[in-house]
Amino acid sequence: MNGDSERFSLDTNLLVYSVDSSAGCRHLTAIEIVDRATECDCYLTVQVLSEFYVVVTRKGMVRPSDAAAQAENWLDAFRCIAASANALRSALSDATAGRASYWDALLVATAREAGCTVLLTEDMGDGQDFGGLRIHNPFSPSGGLSSLARRLLRLD
Questions:
Q1: Alpha carbons 84 and 87: distance in angstroms, whole number
Q2: Which CATH number characterizes residue 92's domain?
Q3: d(CA 156, CA 138)
Q4: What is the pLDDT of residue 4?
Q5: C-alpha distances in Å from residue 58, one per residue of 52, 72, 121
Q6: 35 domain residue, yes or no
Q7: Domain of 116?
Q8: Which candidate, 92, 137, 136, 83, places its Cα nearest to that of 112?
Q9: For 12-64, how does the pLDDT look when each residue is reduced to its tens digit (9 = 90+)?
Q10: Is the pTM of this model over 0.90?
Q11: Cys-Cys with 81: which of 75, 88, 114, 125 at CB 3.0–4.6 Å?
Q12: 51 within domain boundaries
């Protein structure tokens, strides 16, 4: 942790929403999350940046050259971490035990190795705990940011 801040990470869906103008209020909220996260104790995994590129280019949301440029911008804006052999072992264990899909388990294990205690995502079970890393959906039912997301992003 950094002072009174809590280290966290972002899942691919938030990066995708940030460039998907058809996502309505999620688009605007994701832009706010990603922009603010660059100023906070937030790590991105190399996996998330890779998944971002694949998703937005496969769905035709962004031209490949623009998606690559955006991923490179985020590489510069965030502290980034790649999966280690230990993260791979942990992901294999969680996936075979049925606790998470392999790719989600790898993301969780890598973020946990970076010292993250929260993963912001809407794709996994809100409140689920993976050995000290909590899953949290940053979108409130009213369409804005959840109170935890606001705290992590230093908006409160």
A1: 5
A2: 3.40.50.1010
A3: 14
A4: 60
A5: 10, 18, 21
A6: yes
A7: 8-152
A8: 83
A9: 999 999 999 999 889 999 999 999 999 999 999 999 999 999 999 999 999 99
A10: yes
A11: 114
A12: yes
